[in-house]
Structures are given as C-alpha cells and as structure tokens.
C-alpha cells in the first residue's frame, strides 16, 4: 500500500492507495509548522488504525509539498513510525511530464502531481485547475508537456482578506448561494465571493480557449472545486493529486 501526502499551505491531505490504484482512505489535517515528528506520527498511526492497517502494511510514501518548513518534521515522522524513506516530488524524480516554462523548478510539486494525474487519467490537451489557498491553472498538451500556467487567489483567501481588511465585515463560510439577490450581510458576502470567483474562472477558461488552438478538456480539483458549478468545467476530480502521485511513484520504483 502507498500513502500519498499533499502538504499544502492550509491543509495536509493524505490518501491510501492500493496496487490497483484504488484510493480507499483520505484524511485532512491543518498544516502547522510547529507540529513535531511525534505528533505527525501519531496522526499517521491513527489514520492507519481507522482502516485496520498497521505500519507494516505500508510499502512506500510519496509526498508533494509546497511548505518547506513542515518537511523536516513530517518526513522524520514517516521514517520513525513507518520505517520508510519517503519519495519527495521534486528535482531528480521521474514524473513522465515535460515542463516547458521559463523556470521548471518554479512549478509547485502539487501542480506537477495534478498535471501527472490529469495526463495519466484523461490524456493530453487538458487544462488543470486546482482550487486551494491559491487557484492555479496549468495546461498539458497532447504529448504530456506542461506548457504554461497561471496563479490567482483562492476564494477562501479572498474571504479572509476581506474580513481582515475591514472593520465590520465578518469572515463567512464558503458556500454556493441560492440567489444573488442577497438580503443580509452574510449572504451578500457569500454571493459576492462566489459569483466573483466563478466569473474569474469562466473568463480565464475562455481566454485559454482563445489562445490555444487545440480543443481541450477542463479538469478541476482541490478542496473548493465541488463548490463551483459551471458547464465550462468538464470533470471535478477530488483525488487527482493522489492519482498523479501514484503515477509518479510507479515510475520511480
């Protein structure tokens, strides 16, 4: 069994993947730089126990991280509690993807794993959107080449910024509104955030279609992808990064 770990700015998300690429357990914890290796290790053991698994059942661990300051404690926990030296997505790792941007090393490990998962699952000519703390867009052509990308704010990040920069506006739950005709402050913020974010997504997808000659599919993932509803997104795949990490792991073992 493989444990795939996505260490993001807001959450650490783990998935258990068997040899048939079946993802049978996913868990989410808050990303905190001050957690010790023992704390992370105990979390891992608890998640394994929930699936009636033991450390000996774990063959390998692969990590995609965009938070360097968490890596020492987390990798130490894996070595200490699981007796496994994890694979870390980054330079020197075979991914099966070509990266044709100005600085390939600047592409986040999560974006790289998302693209690998999209290409392995859906084939080429895909625009991959990851809706997390930041919202990222990356295009993969028919040959598995990542040719371009775009980064903007996530909807939750916008909500937090609005609450922190104003004196009386509260931070609200991110939700799909039933109407844009809001009649109270909370509903007004929720509807404003949602439709502003939705409009940005649709405009960006439209611009990609204008500037890329080939037709392509749009694959969305990330913690907030299920909230957004638009016919311009072809597939919402919450497990995309785990599929990508499994594909990368298979190439390296």
From TrEMBL:
The gene is coaX. Homodimer. It is found in: Cytoplasm. Catalyzes the phosphorylation of pantothenate (Pan), the first step in CoA biosynthesis. Keywords: ATP-binding, Coenzyme A biosynthesis, Cytoplasm, Kinase, Metal-binding, Nucleotide-binding, Potassium, Transferase. Its cofactor is NH4(+); K(+). GO terms for biological process: coenzyme A biosynthetic process. The keyword Kinase applies. The active site is at residue 110. K(+) binds at residue 130. Belongs to the type III pantothenate kinase family. This is Type III pantothenate kinase. GO terms for molecular function: ATP binding; metal ion binding; pantothenate kinase activity. GO terms for cellular component: cytoplasm. It catalyses: (R)-pantothenate + ATP = (R)-4'-phosphopantothenate + ADP + H(+). A monovalent cation. Ammonium or potassium.
